[in-house]
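This section describes the prediction task in plain terms. A model, or a person checking by hand, is given the sequence of a single protein chain and must write out its three-dimensional structure as a string of tokens. No templates, partner chains or ligands are provided. The sample shown here is typical of the held-out split.
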Amino acid sequence: MSQTQRAPRALSLLPDIGDRTADPVATLVYRSRAVAPLSASELHHLTASAQSRNSRESITGVMVYDDSRFFQWLEGPSESLVRVMQSIRNDPRHTDIEILNDETARQRAFGSWSMKLATRGATASIWGDDVLEPPTDIVDHLRLRPHAAPSVLIQLVPLADAADPAADEAIKAVPLARTTAAILKGVILAAVIPSLAGQHGVTAPGARAIPINPRVAELADLLVATDPTAARELIDELHHVEGSIWPLYGTLFEPAARSLGNLWAEDHCSEFDVTMGLSRIQTAARLLGAHTQPKLAVPSHAAAVLIAPEPGETHRLGAALDSEVLWNAGWAPRCEYPADDRTLQDLVSKTWFDVLDISLSTAFRREHWLPRLTKTIAAARSASRNPVLLVVVGGRIFAEQESSGAQIGADVTSVTAAHVDELISRGMARRDLDGGGGEQT
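The expected answer:
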């Protein structure tokens, strides 16, 4: 048995809603590799032994076995979980144990299952109630992104609740054949709650906290998959839940972009994969926005806004989302992609702009780009026809509040496209109070 490895602690996956147990529940997810492939009878014996042990220890959960790989979710009292994990580590049938998630929750996800085995080819006539055949996309996802196992295994929650007579009828009706994108509607409805805002939210100036959707990591994994269909279906599903595209900007699209950057930093995908993923988010946002009612009536005077990524920035999602928000708010933004600072200076010197909205990547932090952005802003102000040009900056580094726009010469820091129109309006109002505003003729 090799020494147990530990992965970084994962984001909380369980909705903090109501108590099913009096005490906090310890939750642990791990993966391992079978020393030798297990036959159906060996798997059945392993499952029965695990159920007996888990029942004694008040442990519940699910175990996926596929191609000699185990993925297991365990939950219960912390002392019991320690004993069960010690037994698991001592089991000679597997090796390479790696902890993928270790946290506490206020409720169990699989309270009806002392241990259910999920494996390909399982049928009730052979296995009985101890085994189920998971949706194919779940197993494929575990093969493709094993470190995403916590967010993948949680997709089996509706199947667990379907065995509970007290479960919601809508969740019980979810068929096994549904794709990853659709299977967790009930979980989403319960998980997107105000308590997440305080734990994982980001706050724009003057705006409310924005809770990050708990399925962001799953969406990031799907965005870099070969087939983008499941990612689009997940976006459509969450759009249906929200009823509007606007909340998705801050709760889903931008956090998913940051998750793509995390996948790249952890060597789970290439920069090309990140670029493709961002393009898929941008396409989905554009298609959804085309069928969305404008947020506001057309302003009596909409500012002239030039939206551009920092010259040299290949990722355009931030600029695209800002453009969508302003366009649907009744403004007339102009999007450009200058190759260098000189091109940007030519733009602001030839045309009057009230606002310059310039962005860094929504996926990568780009800390080393801040001096470059500082020079870009100073040069644009110097070249601008508007002596009181309002400069807005955005990007991951600002969303994570690692840097302030004021430190690099900007007037407004945008942490999410969802509020960029409000931020610009307030910035222009402050500028007008200070005596600026209006095109010089």
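For orientation: The chain has three domains: 5-176, 191-289, 305-433.
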